[in-house]
From TrEMBL:
Identification of the protein by name: ATP-binding cassette subfamily C protein
Origin species: Streptomyces griseochromogenes
PROSITE patterns: ABC_TM1F, ABC_TRANSPORTER_2
SUPFAM superfamilies in the cross-refs: ABC transporter transmembrane region, P-loop containing nucleoside triphosphate hydrolases
Subcellular location: Cell membrane
Major localization listed first in the record, in broad terms: membrane
Segments for region (Disordered): 319-342
PANTHER family: ATP-BINDING CASSETTE SUB-FAMILY B (PTHR24221), ATP-BINDING CASSETTE SUB-FAMILY B MEMBER 6 (PTHR24221:SF654)
Length: 595
């Protein structure tokens, strides 16, 4: 069993101790009919109807009816407290999963984002549903079993000695079967995650799959996982059927044994007919149904919950600090904020040696044998026709794509040997579509610089051109997101630009990160980064971006050319054509945001 997973669930449930105590209290009232049923039936027969006192017998039956009403009231009153116990469980588990996923992703230890999404959308809600079912079903069953055993032991211990052995045999056989089911259930859950991951990969690359005629290979990857799922589902179905037969036979044997031993019990143990009937009532109406419900629920919901909790334990276990050597010391408890900005490599130069990359083994290289030195503090613009490989170079420089050959050196160290968290804190990439998450404007601006003061925010906002937008939104504590103000694409870009300007990253790459801004706002933002300490690499959207740069790297079908604006105008027909294209008036992009 997953002890850590059950510990996580127990910890979250203990936080709801007050409603749990109320659930237990009303469960005692709910179990009252099981406690009193056999004893009241025995007295109704022995002291009432069989003694020719029908009013006395009816009185005991009326008392049993009152016990049933109290039990029904207990069930009704228990449910609001049960909801108060389990409903917050989903949010608490999602909090744990998000925190652990982010920590592992930042440390480069998470194997697949799609699997993480599958966990977030499935594990937390699945755990809540299973825990609800378990508490709703197992809880009354346990209370009824205790009540029935106490009633039988009080009424006639000999009946318990006859009824319990076949019941225990059925339970033992069910436990063995459930252990086999648990193994298949865990494999089934892992297979479902594999199917989600493989399907997401194939669908995301569908055009490439079709272009490369790789449909059979893609289908085979998913078919293999589906075949595994089908195989284990069938095995689980067979084992479940076997468990059902075992329980059905085992739970009828106590009644048959008690009926067969009735004569012996009355002769040798002087049991009255009322006691025999009371014992039958305890066994048939309370004990056997409760044990059957308990075994069925534990064998289905309980096993499934155990597998899910084991997966939950794996998903929420934080890596050891030894696995995070380059992360700054900080509190990793859920909900804590970073204590300090991440470390960066000081004054990093960028050197590319014979860098080559292609999108397939038979495809033409997008980057071919590129040699480039970008000293710290340089301002480089990258230009070229659309689709030529400019954004690919940005991905190579940030390590999100690995080169086929060659090497990238950052501060004299191979980029492949630098811990991902350190490389990401040293090189900041702003893509064309800016990322703004649900939270305050301050949180969006400072999550790369958690120690930033209001003065730092004001300085970066003024430099980049965000101040007017910040004031219009209502200040840095304005909530952004679905319920907040609607932002244009240009306004989102201003927020992303200010965020990186505020960060300690000494190398900044703008991958058409100002394309939704008007020319004046773009010039102001680029000037802010050019005067900021560090290196600026701009994948140019307009010719003015290239003109502002110290050097320009031109991508063409024949390779790359490095030079200044004046040098390339004199030596490169392609660059001259690009300048002419950029200088031609054209319709501006929608939703511009001005500084």
């Amino acid at each position: 069993m997953s002890h850590h997973g059950w510990h996580v669930l127990g910890h979250e449930l203990r936080r709801r101790r007050r409603p749990l105590l109320k659930v237990a209290a009303w469960s005692l009232a709910e179990a009252l009919p099981s406690t009193a049923s056999g004893a009241l039936i025995a007295r109704a027969l022995d002291q009432g109807f069989l003694a020719h006192r029908p009013l006395t017998g009816c009185g005991y039956l009326a008392a049993f009816a009152v016990a049933m009403l109290i039990g029904a009231l207990g069930t009704r009153q228990m449910f609001p407290h049960l909801a108060a116990t389990v409903e917050p469980l989903r949010d608490q588990l999602v909090h744990r999963l998000v925190h652990a996923t982010l920590v592992r992703s930042v440390a480069g230890l998470d194997g697949g984002a799609d699997t993480s999404v599958s966990r977030l959308t499935g594990l937390a809600e699945h755990t809540r549903q299973l825990a609800t079912t378990l508490l709703r079903t197992v809880r009354p069953a346990v209370f009824k079993i205790i009540a029935a055993l106490a009633g039988v032991a009080t009424l006639a211990p000999a009946i318990a000695l006859i009824a319990m052995p076949p019941l225990l045999l059925a339970l033992g056989a069910s436990v063995l079967i459930m252990r086999a089911i648990a193994r298949h259930q865990r494999t089934l859950l892992l297979t479902q995650e594999t199917i989600a991951e493989e399907a997401t990969t194939v669908v995301g690359a569908l055009r490439d799959v079709i272009a490369c005629a790789a449909e059979p290979r893609a289908r085979a990857r998913i078919d293999q996982a589906i075949d595994t799922q089908v195989r284990h589902t069938r095995r689980m179905a067979r084992l479940t059927a076997l468990r059902t037969v075992t329980m059905s036979l085992g739970f009828q044997l106590p009644l048959l044994a008690l009926l067969a031993a009735t004569g012996w019990l009355t002769r040798h143990h002087a049991l009255t007919p009322g006691q025999i009937m009371g014992g039958l009532t305890y066994i048939s109406a309370a004990l056997v149904p409760a044990v059957s419900s308990l075994v069925s629920t534990v064998g289905s919901t309980g096993l499934e919950l155990n597998v899910v909790l084991k997966r939950l334990s794996e998903a929420t276990t934080l890596p050891d600090r030894a696995d995070l050597p380059e992360m700054s010391p900080q509190d990793t408890s859920p909900g804590s904020a970073p204590a300090a900005a991440p470390r960066v490599l000081p004054s990093p130069n960028l050197k590319l040696h014979a860098l080559t990359f292609a999108y397939g083994p038979h495809a033409k290289p997008v980057v071919n044998n590129l040699h480039l030195h970008v000293p710290h503090g340089d301002h480089l613009a990258i230009v070229g026709p659309s689709g030529i490989g400019k954004s690919t170079l940005a991905q190579l420089l940030t390590g999100t794509v690995t080169a086929d050959s060659g090497e990238i050196l950052l501060a004299g160290r191979s980029l492949a040997d630098i811990p991902p968290c350190l490389a990401r804190s040293t090189i900041a990439l702003i893509p064309q579509e800016a990322y703004v998450f649900a939270g305050t404007l301050r949180e969006n601006l400072t999550y790369l610089a958690p120690d930033a003061t209001d003065a730092d925010l004001d300085a970066s906002a003024d430099a980049v051109g965000l101040r007017t937008l910040a004031e219009r939104l209502g200040g840095y504590d304005t909530l952004l997101g679905p319920e907040g103000p609607q932002l244009s694409s240009g306004e989102r870009q201003l927020i992303a630009l200010t965020r990186v300007h505020l960060s300690p990253a000494p190398v900044v790459i703008l991958d058409e990160a100002t394309c939704y801004l008007d020319p004046a706002a773009e010039a102001r933002a680029e000037q802010a980064f050019a005067t900021r300490q560090g290196t600026l690499i701009v994948i140019a959207h307009r010719i003015t971006s290239a003109q502002r740069a110290r050097r320009i790297l031109l991508f063409s079908e024949n390779g790359t050319t490095l030079g200044t604006h004046t040098q390339l105008l004199a030596t490169s027909p392609l660059y001259t054509d690009l300048v002419g294209h950029w200088d031609t008036p054209h319709t501006p992009r929608p939703e511009p945001a001005t500084a």
